Each structure stands twice: as structure tokens, then as C-alpha cells.
Amino acid sequence: MTGFLIGRDVRVKPMIEVRNLTKTYMTHERGHTLREVAKNLFHRPMKEVKAVHDLSFTVQQGEMLAFLGPNGAGKSTTLKMLTGVLHPTSGEVRALGLVPWKQRRQYVGRIGAVFGQKSQLLWDIPPVDAFYMNKAIYGVGDREYKQTLDELVLLLEVGDVMRKPTRQLSLGERMKCEFIMAMLHRPELVFLDEPTIGLDMIAKENIRGFIRSMNSQGVTFILTTHDLGDVEMLAERVMVINHGAIVVDDSLSGLRARLGEKKSVRLTTETAVTEEGLPGLSIVERIGPLEIAVEVDTALLPLKRFIREFNESYGIIDMSIEQLPIEAVMKELYTEGPSFVSATREPEVIK
Ligand SMILES: Nc1ncnc2c1ncn2[C@@H]1O[C@H](COP(=O)(O)OP(=O)(O)OP(=O)(O)O)[C@@H](O)[C@H]1O
């Protein structure tokens, strides 16, 4: 394979193998009442928090996995274990053939990370100087450094930007530089946590384009985000966790299929729509006195019939029909507990 990982052994192989990964935090119980607080000064009882419970999955080389879940689902805890920052309570992880928390020095030289809410750059110095610092930390040779930097600068168009002090950069410019910082040592596996948070549409598209380009050159990405636009534009596979357990592990198209035959329809009518009245129809939002957003399950109510009946009853002035957004299925998954489990991938055995 040519491209970003040139010279690396990039045969398709499991990048990450996770088996029965569990993390339980032990925390001190806090009292709520004054009496409890006073009592806890002498004896503070411990409480178990099961953040991640029995996760098993495999990520292949070159995959782009969106790792999603509602607040408190256990995503950060899992990512901390996958990056080697945190020891699990039990279970195994093998990433790039290494145990992240045991072979950390070797491991960090081969992975990268970008956190939308945490900067790796230094506020008062230009990104280009911070890049040079990373070159030294990762022991990147002069020729390889120049070649990689030139390639990334060209892709992200930050030639002038990277010479200004970081504090003078816009968020979009800074995020591009964060990506260069994370990619200079040509990592094979990259963890992204909210990489487009706060960016405008153009900047988001730039960053997403860059991620796609790196992925097409063989870099494996694990993406955590609450921005479903990132998921729709980037991910092939979506894993959702909730209450520390996998709720679903499916392709993006598989997830879309769960939406069934539903369509989102926005209508402006001559007279106000009074009631739902048809099987397969539900009102989602009343936007104005004569404007309404509805959901139509075309398996129960064919669009032709819906349009005819609505036109006869209320007179259609304007209408737009769209596929239901992926948010509809996510909302369902985020509110379901682990009993909803329908992981589609069989865990493989760690050899
Ligand atoms: N250091 C800690 N000590 C005790 N409990 C913790 C600790 N870190 C996380 N937790 C708890 O573990 C659970 C999972 O937290 P985690 O941060 O992994 O969730 P998350 O999916 O990343 O959430 P978010 O989307 O809000 O960042 C939560 O109930 C959280 O309160």
C-alpha cells in the first residue's frame, strides 16, 4: 500500500481486540444531609460505579469506527483503557499487538489522538514550533519529518497559519494544526474525541475531508462524538454503548435500515391540520399555524395516499419529503438499556 503509512506493515489485520473489558470505579459516598456529611468525616463508605461492563469487540486495520453513546455511557472510560491511560478492572485489550497500559512507551509511538476540547499546542508559541517539539519527542527523522509536514500542510492549507502564535488562530485553524500535531509521527491508529466541536460548516467539512483522506490511506480511526453529522459523513461502522455495555454494533447503512420505510415530511397547507387521523402518520412538530412536520411510515401509509388525503382535507401549498435523519434511531438507542443488545459482530479470540 502507498500513502500515509508507506513502509509500514499494513496488511489487513485486527487493530484492536477487546475481550470482556470491565472498569469499576470505587468512589467515596458523599452524604446529602448535614448529619451524613458529619458522619462521613469519620467513616466514608465506598461506592462502586460500573462504568464499563464486559465489552468485547474487534476493530480491523483501516476501519473508521464511530463509538457513540449518551453522556455517562462509558465512552471516555473505554477510550482511556484503549489508549493505555487507565488500567481495566478486568478483561483484555490488544491494540497493534500490544497491551496499551503495559507497553505504553511502544504503544504511544504508534497511536495519535485529537481532543476537540483539549489542546496539544502551546498557547504562546506558533504551531510549527510545537510540531518540532513533537518531532523530538517521537524521534522522527529529519527527512521523514519534512516530508510528512509538507504533505499535511498542503492537505490542510495551513502554510502561513502555522507560523502565527497559537492564541491568534481561529478555532478552525487551530484544529487543523491539532491534527498535524497528532499525525506527524504517522500513527496507524488515531483516537478522535469531538474533533469538530464548535467549528463552522466549512471548517467541519475541511476536517472531515482530512480524516477521510487519512483513512483512505490506511489509518484506522476511532471517533467519539455527539455530532451525528460527523457520523454520517465519516463512519462506516457505528458502535453505541449505554450504561457501560454495547447496545448496537452495526454498519451505518444497517442502522439506517432500522428506520424502516419512514419519511420526514414538511407541509404548508391552506387550512390548519387538525389531527393525525391516518394509520402510519404522526405529527412531529407544529412549526406555524399552517406549517407542520410529520413522520410517515410508508409501509402503513403509501406516500401517494398520504398526499391525496392531505390535499383533499387541508389543501397542500408546499411540501418537502426527506429520509428520516439518523438522529431518530440514535434517540431510540440512547434511551434503551443494554437489553436492546443486537451486536452484529462475533467477538474473535485473542491468540
Ligand atoms: N474517575 C471516576 N471516578 C468515579 N466515577 C467515574 C470516574 N470517571 C467516570 N466515572 C463514572 O463512570 C460513568 C461513565 O463515565 P464516562 O466519562 O466514561 O462516560 P462518557 O460516555 O464518556 O460520558 P460523556 O459523553 O458525558 O463524556 C459515569 O457514571 C461517570 O460518572
TrEMBL record:
Molecular function via GO: ATP binding
Signal peptide interval: none
Phosphoprotein keyword on record: no
UniProt keyword annotations, A-Z: ATP-binding, Nucleotide-binding, Transport
Domain of life: Bacteria
Pfam families per UniProt: ABC_tran
All copies of domain ABC transporter, residue ranges: 16-268
Gene3D superfamilies: P-loop containing nucleotide triphosphate hydrolases
TM helices/strands, residue ranges: none
Keyword Transport: yes
InterPro entries: AAA+_ATPase (IPR003593), ABC_transporter-like_ATP-bd (IPR003439), ABC_transporter_ATP-binding (IPR050763), P-loop_NTPase (IPR027417)
Entry similarity comment: Belongs to the ABC transporter superfamily.
Protein name: ABC-2 type transport system ATP-binding protein
Taxonomy of the source species: Bacteria, Bacillati, Bacillota, Bacilli, Bacillales
